[in-house]
Amino acid sequence: MGLKNSFLLVRAFDIKIKEKLIGGNMEKIGFIGLGNMGEAILKALIKSGYSTDCIFFCEIKPERAELMERTYKIKHVKDVKKILNKTKYIIIAVKPQDAKKALESISPFIDERHIIISIMTGISISKMLSFSDKKLKIIRAMPNICAKVGNSLTAITANKEIKTEELNEIKKILSTFGYVVEIEEEHMNALTALSGSGPAFVLYFLEAMIDAGVKLGLSRDKSKEISTQVMKGTIEMLEKENLHPTILKEMITSPGGTTIYGLAHLEEKAFKGSVIKAIEEAAKRAGELSI
User: Fold this and answer.
1) How many C-beta neighbours within 10 Å does residue 79 have?
2) How far is the C-alpha of 25 from the C-alpha of 165, rounded, in Å?
3) Backbone angles phi and psi of 68, in degrees to 5
C-alpha cells in the first residue's frame, strides 16, 4: 500500500472520549516519563474529559514529578510494576537514549492485555522488541509540537500483535490532541521531516514575512499580526475551498500583477526546490538517528 492510500485521518475532538472508550468505561493509562510532549498529551487527555483517576505516571526527576502531580492532580507511582498492574495503555515518553532502560524495566510485568504506545523519536518497533523476550503489543506514534494546542499531526504504526479494535481505541485516545495518520513504518522518517520538522519550516517562512514587513516600514508587532493572520486565513481558505494549493495560488495571481512578480523572484531563487531539499535532508537525518 502506498503512502497516500495508507493515510487515515481522524479529526480532533470529533470523538467524545467519555462515551466511546470501551463501552463508556475508561481504560487506565500509565506514562513512563513525562517531559514536554508527554505533558502535552496528558493535558489534552484531561481536557477531552479523561478522568485523572485513570491516569498514572512514573518520572525519575523528583521536581518534575512533583510539578506534574500538583498541576494535573494525577498519581505519581515510583514503582513501574504498580503502574503496569493498574493500567492497560503504557505511553513511553522518555528520551530515545533511555529507551532500553525504560523497556527493560517494564518488560517483566507486561502481559497480553498491555499495549505500549511509544512516542520516542527514532526508536523502531523492531528495536523496542529487542529489549524484551516477550511478544509485545506496540504502537509507535509521532506527534508534533502542535499537540500543545490540540492540533498535532500524529503518525502511528502498529506491529502485528495489535488487533484492529485495539488500534481503533488508540486512535481515539491520540485524536484528543489532533489528527491521526496511520502509515507504514518505512515512511516514519518522511513523516518526521514533514510533521516533526515541518512547523519549524513554516515558522521560518513566517519569520521572513515579518522581517519583510519591517523592512518595508511596518512595526514588528504590526508585521507579525498581519503575517500571522495571512497564514491563518490562507490555511482556512485551503481547508474550506477544498482545492489544491496550486489552484488557489493561481486565483491570487493576476497577469502582470504584484503576486506574479514576487513568485517569479522566488522561482529564480529556487524557493520550491530549496523547501523540498530541506525536507529531504530532514528525512535523511531522521534515518541516520533511527535505531
Assistant:
1) 10
2) 15
3) -65, -40
Q: What is the pTM of this model?
A: 0.83
Evaluate whether 125 touches 159 at the Cβ level (below 8 Å): yes
Q: Return the half-sphere exposure (C-beta side, CA atoms, 13 A cut-off) of residue 215.
A: 6
Measured CA to CA, the distance from residue 134 to residue 130 in angstroms comes to: 9
Residue type (1 letter), 204: Y
Q: Quick one: how far is CA 23 from the chain centroid?
A: 26
Q: What is the pLDDT of residues 196-215, one digit of tens each?
A: 999 999 999 999 999 999 99
In 3D, which of 80, 147, 60, 163 has the Cα closest to residue 115? 163
Domain formed by 3-188, architecture: 3-Layer(aba) Sandwich (3.40)
Q: What nine digits make up the cell of 278? A: 530541506
* pLDDT at residue number 17: 46
Q: What is the maximum span of the chain, computed from C-alpha positions, in angstroms?
A: 70
What CATH number does the domain located at 198-289 have? 1.10.3730.10
Query: Residues 144-157: pLDDT tens digits?
Result: 999 988 899 999 99
